[in-house]
Amino acid sequence: MQVKAAVVTEVNGPWRTEVIEIDEPRSHEVKVKMAFAGMCYSDESLRNGGISQIPEILQALSGRDTIYPVIGGHEGAGVVESVGDGVTSLQVGDHVAVSFVPSCGNCDYCLSGRSYICDMGATILAGPMISDGTWRHRLGGTNLNRMCQVGAFSEYVVVHEASLIRIEPWLDLRAAALISCGLSTGFGSAVNRGGVKPGDTVAVIGCGGVGSGAVLGAVHAGARAVIAIDTDPSKVERAKSIGATYGAENTLDAAFNILPELTWGKNCDVVIITVNKMTADLVEQARSITAKGGVIVLTSLAPFDLTTVDLNVQLLAMYNQEIRGTVFGSENPRLQIPRLLRLHHEGKFDVDALVTSEYSIDEVEEGYKDLKSGKNVRGVVRF
Ligand SMILES: [Zn+2]
Ligand SMILES: [Zn+2]
C-alpha cells in the first residue's frame, strides 16, 4: 500500500514527507495504523548524523554502509491493522505503543528481567527487519531503513511484534506516544537507574522531553528537592511547573547559588544528564555537583566517536561516586509503558502539559525547527 512518511535521504538532509510503498507484514510482523508519533531529539540526531553507526558496522548488519534513506520516528502509538503468520501476542484492533527497544523474551537479558538491553537491540540503528533482514518499506525503488526498527513518522508501519507493547483501549494514545520513549526513559533514569529515594536531592541537567520525565520520576520517588538545569529559561520554568523545586542555568549556577544552602555543601545524591547531545565536559560538571557516595546517570545520546570525557578520577574514587549508563531508564518497556499510562489515566502523571504543539505528517521539518529554536518541549505528529 502507499502511505505518507517523513524521510531523510542523506546526512543533514531535510525531513521530507514522501509517498512510500509498504508491504504486508510477514512472519512475526505487525502492521500498525499510527495515531500519534512523538518528535524526540534523537530523530534530529539521526538526521544530522550524530548517532550514525560506523559504516563497517552498518555494512555488516544491513549490507550497505549508510543508514539513509531512513524513515524517522521511534515513539508513537496506534492500532493494529493486520498481523503476519506466527503473531500470538497481538490481534487486529489492539491498541499498541511502539518501543524503540525491541524485547524478544528469550535472550539472556530478557530472561533475567532486563529486556531494555535485549539482544535484538543490536539492530536498532541498522535498518532491515529484525525478522529476516529484508525490507518492507520503499521509496521509489530504494529500500527504506527505519529509526530504531520503528519509523513512527509514517501513516502505517510494519514492525516486528517485539517492538510493540499492547495497551488497554481506554488509555490515551497521545500520552502513550510520549511515554513510549522520552518520558519513560527520563522517569526510569531517576527511579530505576538513579535509585532516587525519599529525601534525596536530585539535579536534572537538560530539561527537554527526557529531562521532564526525570523530573517527574524524581518527584514520584519522593525527592526532597529537584534542581532543573537548562540554559533555556522556558524549559526551567516548565520543569518547575511539573514539580522541580529549583532552577539553574548551568552546574556552576547550581553549585554556587543553590546547593550550599540547600544541602549544606553535601551536593546532590543523584545527578541525571538528559541534554539533547552529550558533550565531553558534562561528566565532570555533573560529578562536581554530586555528593559523596552519589550517582551520576548518563542518559543523553552521544556521538559514537565520543571516547574521551572530562572527569576528575581522583575525586570520583575518593568520594565513592558512581557513573551509570542507561537505556530506556533501565526498566522493561512492557512493564513501564502500561504502568505510566495507568498513572496518567488516573491523573497522577502529567504529560499533556509537555506537548507544546501538534503537527501533521507534512509538517515534521517545521516541528524540528520549532524544537531547535526552543519553541517546543515535545511536538507530536497527529495522524
Ligand atoms: Zn526518543
Ligand atoms: Zn531479548
Provide an overview of this structure:
This protein is an alpha/beta fold and 383 residues long. The chain has two domains: 198 residues, Alpha-Beta Complex (Quinone Oxidoreductase, Chain A, domain 1), CATH 3.90.180.10; 141 residues, 3-Layer(aba) Sandwich (Rossmann fold), CATH 3.40.50. The strands form three sheets. Strands 3, 5, 6, 10, 11, 18 and 19 form a seven-stranded mixed sheet that branches. Strands 8-7-2-1-4-9 form a six-stranded mixed sheet, with no helix packed on it. Helix 4 crosses helix 5 and helix 4 crosses helix 11. The longest helix has 21 residues. The mean pLDDT is 95. The structure holds zinc ion (ZN) (2 copies). The site of one zinc ion has 10 residues, from helix 3. One zinc ion binds next to helix 3.
Layout of SSEs?
Layout: E1 2-8, E2 16-22, E3 29-39, H1 41-47, H2 55-62, E4 70-71, E5 75-83, E6 95-98, H3 108-111, E7 137-139, E8 142-143, E9 145-146, E10 156-160, E11 164-167, H4 173-193, E12 201-205, H5 209-220, E13 225-229, H6 233-241, E14 246-248, H7 251-257, H8 259-263, E15 268-273, H9 282-288, E16 290-298, H10 313-318, E17 322-325, H11 333-345, E18 355-359, H12 364-372, E19 378-382
Helix pairs in contact: 4-5, 4-11
This protein binds zinc ion (2 copies).
The site of one zinc ion has 10 residues, from helix 3.
